[in-house]
Amino acid sequence: MKTVLIVEDESIAALELSETVRSLGYRVPEPVDSADKVMAALVREQPDAIFMDIHLSSFIDGIDAARRMKLLRDIPLVYLTAYNNEETRRRAEKTDPVDFLVKPVSRSQIESVLKQIFTSH
Fold first, then answer.
1. In terms of residue numbers, what domain contains 104?
2. Please, are residues 84 and 54 in contact by the beta-carbon 8 Å criterion?
3. Largest CB tally within 10 Å, which of 38, 46, 55, 105?
4. Are 7 and 69 in contact, with CB atoms under 8 Å apart?
5. Per-residue confidence of the chain (121 residues) as pLDDT tens digits?
6. CATH number of the domain that 106 lies in?
7. What's the pTM?
8. How many structural domains is the chain composed of?
9. How far is the CA of 20 from the CAs of 30, 58, 72, in angstroms?
10. How far apart (Å, rounded) are the C-alpha atoms in residues 74 and 14?
């Protein structure tokens, strides 16, 4: 069973996304609520894909966390954000994400991006 790690600091959003991904047949470990905890979760959980919120309430944001993460392992990454601006998108694109989803995301968007990830990787 493929594992999908969720990095989201809003507990309700993390819970909803976790339940949706789980209902689609994936293993979802405890969501990570801060960029500072991403590396430890990456080593511990060995995820096959990651949903990463861009604006996290920590010292570094999701884009910087993804940049660090990619030094250790190149894992398919999907960004989530409520703020769709060009500067943020440009920064995010440098980490080669699979997709960039604007919140709120629908079940069909999640299902589609996971199919894309697991049929191409």
1. 4-120
2. no
3. 38
4. no
5. 999 999 999 999 999 999 999 999 999 999 999 988 999 999 999 999 999 999 887 788 999 999 999 888 999 999 999 888 899 899 999 999 999 999 999 999 999 999 999 997 6
6. 3.40.50.2300
7. 0.94
8. 1
9. 14, 25, 28
10. 23
